[in-house]
Every structure is written in structure tokens, then in C-alpha cells.
Design brief:
heterodimer; A: 15 helices; flat; B: about 200 residues; alpha+beta; 2 domains; five-stranded mixed beta sheet; about 45% helix
Chain lengths: ~250, ~200
């Protein structure tokens, strides 16, 4: 199929539109995303489409390409440049808080925990609450409808479901703040010591909630072998958490 | 999605200058068609690059939306059809086995045999004129004579002669045989001549 024909196909255009609709809540963002993707696909005489070598299925290639462009669009639209200067001048930790609270709709408490895990804010919670006062006063209207790519429609019920199906999440959610931060650090460190296959398996299944079957395909395992491996990996996490003095309350 | 695990497990953001994984390679990864050696190299980058991980993650999400939910591939012997077939075979063996046992364990319904009519049998047939004879000395002698001929018969309650038997006068007459059919402990006897 020639690149021109690909972009002339109403079916493919509808799919691109659907991807943008899924990724953005605001009508304006959706339309601009759609135009951005089409423009970039046409750039340099359809260079990106012509790069297709036929090693994968065309449909998968197109989706991957469109997703890459959507990620680019989001970064351009909601990248660092849009963070108010009043926030940026406070430092990287403040930008991170702004991104988490304003764009990704996390609570201020969650943002504090995440910063602790990342090691970007060393102060106490009280100090944090005082420090973020200017951030809370900063405008947050650039992306009122921005949906986190990974957290569509979060709500209490969904979080309960997540905890039920994700043993790591279930454990962390039961811990108090101090131990939760520690547990997240242990999980991050343990993950970094795993072989690449295992790392990605854990990231996809427990970090991004993909079905084991999909994750198994990516790392070249059968679903049943991946399930067995996940059990072993959970034991490893458990040992690491216990070694750090973290156990289920 | 679990916010704590997501935060813990998302790869770190790669520097802007990082060489990212080619789009088609990400597509092949999502399809699971990458060789082992190449996969190790690709995963090394993806586990350290938030951007490539995110594209892979979105592509997998897309693939899941595109593909209707299918039952997981499983061995043939775990399918419903295999279980149904196994259950049907067990039923056939259990029910059919009982019939087979009853059929095989009972005595054959009839015995059919042809034997030379020797003097012993002639004496039984010539004992009197009755064409039917029940339990008694004559029947006992017939039973003994038949058993002597190798016929597997345990008990007789009646013998029926097709027609009266008369001794042949000629010493060189045709050979005589006795056709015997035993059914329900009743022996039907027919004398025939053979050339």
C-alpha cells in the first residue's frame, strides 16, 4: 500500500482520530492532535510511512507510529515550556509537583510521596506543604482537560480493583506514608537488579496493568511461563521488602 | 491503574539526545516477533527510556482494543470438547461394559454341530419310538454321547427327533451323520445321509 493511499483510507483516518480522542479529553486537543499526526505523517514526502520495511504488520506499525507522534504532540503541548515561570524558578521538584497535581490530577499528598521516592524533595511533609504554596497559586488552566495517558478515568472503585489484582499495589496501599515511600524505593531498586525480560514483564503487568498474555508475547514467553515467572518475581520482591523491614500490616 | 506501582515501575526518562528504538522495532516487539538477541538489546533501552516504554505501552493497549478478547490458547486436552469426549467415552465404557459383561458371561444361546452317527448314538435314537424325550435314562445317555463327541453341553431337559430313526440294513449303506442344534437346553436332532 502506498503512503498516499494509507492516508487516503477513511478507515485509517478514523483510527488515527480515535487514538487522539482516547488520549485527550478536550475537543481542541483532540483536533490539534489529529492534525499534528497527519502533518507529521505527510512530512518529507511521507518519510515516516516510507520507513516501513514490512518486518511487522502494517497495522501495528501504523499504531506504533501514531502513538509515537501522539507522545511527541503531548510533549510539545504540555512540555516544560508550559510550566509557569513562578513554578519553574522553584526548581525541578516544583515542576514535578506541578506536573503531577495540575496535569496528572494526583493529590498533593501523592505528589509528596512520589517526590520522596525520586529523592527530589528531602524535607518533611510540613515543609513540603509550606513550599508548595506558590505552586498552588500558579495557574493551572493550560490543560484543564488533560488526561493522564496512563490514568484514564481514575476513581475510587477502580483503585480498589487495581489493588485487588496487583499484589504490589495492594501491599503498598496498606502501608503508612513513611513505609510506603520506603517500599516504593525497594521495589524500584529490586526492579533495577532484574534481567531485562523480567523488568519489562513486571513493568507491563504491574506497572501498566497489561494482561500477562500481551506482556508475555513481548518478552517471548508463553502466558503460562510468564505467570510462573511473575510468581517467582513476586517472591523476590517480598524478600527484598522483608529485608528492608517492610511487611504487610 | 495502581498509582504506587506505576510510579515505582515506570522507567526513568531518557535524556532527549538518547537514540530511541525504531518505530518498526517497537511494532515487532508488540507483535512478539523479535529474536532473542535483538530483544535483549531492545529491552535494555526500553527499560531505561520512558518515551519508548510509553509508545510500546500505548501500542499494546491499542492492540488489546483492536483484538476482541479471545480465550487464552490452551492445550487441546484442556478444551471443553476434549473433556466432553472423555466423559462420553467413560459413559460408553461404564454402560456398554455392563452389557458386554452380561453378554460375554452367559452361555452361548445355541450350539450347532454335526457328528458321525456312531453305534452309541444309534442306540439312543433306537431306544424307543418317541420323537420327544425328556429327562430320563435316554436323555442322559444322549447327553453323555454328545459330551463324548466333544460337544460342550452341560445339561439337557428335552430332545426332539425330527423323524423316527430306523436302523439301515445294509452294511455298505451311505454314511450317516447327526445334525444337532441345542437351544435353551433342548436338543433338536436330525439324521442325514452323506455320500
Amino acid at each position: 500500500m502506498k503512503p498516499e493511499e494509507i492516508l487516503a483510507s477513511s478507515d485509517i483516518l478514523e483510527k488515527i482520530e480515535a487514538v487522539c480522542q482516547r488520549r485527550f479529553a478536550a475537543e481542541n486537543d483532540r483536533n490539534e492532535c489529529y492534525i499534528f499526526v497527519l502533518d507529521n505523517l505527510r512530512t518529507d514526502d511521507f518519510k515516516r510511512l516510507r520507513a516501513f520495511k514490512g518486518q511487522s504488520q502494517l497495522s501495528t506499525y501504523l499504531y506504533t507510529l501514531v502513538n509515537a507522534l501522539v507522545v511527541d504532540f503531548r510533549r510539545q503541548r504540555y512540555g516544560r515550556r508550559r510550566i509557569p515561570t513562578s513554578v519553574s524558578k522553584l526548581g525541578q521538584w516544583a515542576e514535578a509537583v506541578y506536573r503531577l497535581v495540575c496535569w496528572q490530577k494526583f493529590s498533593v499528598d501523592d505528589a509528596y510521596d512520589f517526590l520522596q521516592v525520586d529523592g527530589t524533595f528531602d524535607g518533611s511533609y510540613e515543609q513540603f506543604r509550606q513550599a508548595i504554596a506558590p505552586i498552588q497559586n500558579a495557574p493551572c488552566r493550560e490543560s484543564p482537560g488533560f488526561k493522564s495517558l496512563d490514568n484514564p478515568g481514575r476513581d475510587r472503585l477502580r483503585e480498589m480493583d487495581d489493588a485487588a489484582s496487583n499484589p504490589l499495589e495492594a501491599l503498598i496501599s496498606k502501608l503508612d506514608r513513611q513505609r510506603r515511600i520506603k517500599a516504593m524505593q525497594v521495589i524500584r531498586e529490586t526492579t533495577a537488579t532484574l534481567p531485562g525480560n523480567d523488568q519489562l514483564l513486571v513493568r507491563l503487568v504491574y506497572g501498566s496493568e497489561h494482561p500477562v498474555r500481551s506482556a508475555a508475547k513481548v518478552i517471548g514467553l508463553s502466558a503460562s511461563a510468564a505467570r510462573r515467572r511473575l510468581k517467582r518475581l513476586l517472591l523476590k520482591y517480598r524478600e527484598s521488602l522483608l529485608a528492608a523491614g517492610i511487611r504487610e500490616p | 491503574m495502581g498509582k504506587w506501582t506505576k510510579k515505582s515501575l515506570v522507567p526513568p526518562a531518557a535524556p532527549d539526545a538518547a537514540e530511541h528504538v525504531a518505530v518498526e522495532d517497537l511494532a515487532r516487539l508488540a507483535e512478539g516477533t523479535v529474536g532473542t538477541v535483538e530483544r535483549v538489546q531492545l529491552l535494555r533501552h526500553i527499560n531505561c527510556c520512558q518515551q519508548c516504554y510509553e509508545i510500546l505501552h500505548l501500542t499494546l493497549q491499542q492492540a488489546a482494543l483492536e483484538t476482541p478478547m479471545k480465550p487464552a490458547a490452551q492445550p487441546w486436552w484442556k478444551t471443553k470438547a476434549a473433556y466432553a469426549l472423555a466423559a462420553a467415552m467413560i459413559l460408553i465404557f461404564v454402560i456398554g461394559g455392563q452389557f458386554a459383561f452380561v453378554y460375554l458371561s452367559r452361555a452361548p444361546r445355541f450350539i450347532s454341530a454335526t457328528v458321525d452317527l456312531d453305534q452309541n448314538l444309534r442306540d439312543v435314537l433306537l431306544a424307543d419310538d418317541a420323537l420327544r424325550f425328556g429327562e430320563g435314562a435316554r436323555l442322559t445317555r444322549l447327553l453323555a454321547a454328545l459330551q463324548q463327541k466333544g460337544i460342550d453341553v452341560k445339561h439337557l431337559k428335552l430332545a426332539v427327533l425330527a423323524k423316527p430313526y430306523y436302523q439301515k440294513k445294509s452294511l455298505f449303506g451311505p454314511r450317516e451323520v447327526l445334525h444337532i442344534r441345542i437351544e435353551n437346553d433342548v436338543a433338536y436332532l436330525v439324521v442325514a445321509e452323506v455320500q
